[in-house]
Amino acid sequence: MQQTNSMVKVVHVAVGVILRDSQVLLALRSSTQHQGGKWEFPGGKVEAGETVPQALSRELYEEIAITVTQSSAFMQLEYAYPEKTVLLDIYLVTGFDGQPHGREGQPLRWASSSELSTIEFPDANQPIVERIQEYLSQS
Length: 139
Ligand SMILES: Nc1nc2c([nH]c(=O)n2[C@H]2C[C@H](O)[C@@H](COP(=O)(O)OP(=O)(O)OP(=O)(O)O)O2)c(=O)[nH]1
Ligand SMILES: [Mg+2]
Known about the structure:
The protein has helices at about 50-65, 125-139, and strands at about 10-20, 25-30, 40, 45, 65-80, 85-95, 110. A hairpin with a 2-residue loop joins strand 1 (about 10-20) and strand 2. The longest helix is centred in the middle third of the chain and has 13 residues, at about 50-65. It is globular and about 40 Å long. Helix content is about 20%, strand content about 40%. The site of magnesium ion has 4 residues, from strand 4 and helix 1. Belongs to the Nudix hydrolase family.
């Protein structure tokens, strides 16, 4: 039987594009994770009963120790990896408290718009990178 999209479990992920001085904060996914060894926008899975902004705030506090004070919906993207399908719910984070650091030992870096073109992201991320570059060129 042909597998249709409705039969595939979709993993809902809250993703933060954290902005400061026209740069974006990235975290290195550990080699043991799905899409490991690539740079990501910090975030994680939305848990049952959570809104996306709640999941985003929780994940950014858990992963990089910041408290989100200002965010807005940016884009949504569904992407089918061979092993799973993800729905990335992407928010711009334009205000936060605290000094970001990788609480799980993961390296962090700030990247400028042009640097984003040279960094290896998970396969789903290309449209996100393009929209960020468009956004930064207008601001
Ligand atoms: N955080 C994040 N996840 C991404 C990006 N692009 C992308 O394809 N993903 C995928 C990879 C994973 O399959 C999924 C996110 O899962 P995750 O591993 O961050 O989830 P989590 O933080 O809840 O971690 P865990 O507790 O399951 O280990 O979304 C991205 O830019 N940021
Ligand atoms: Mg995560």
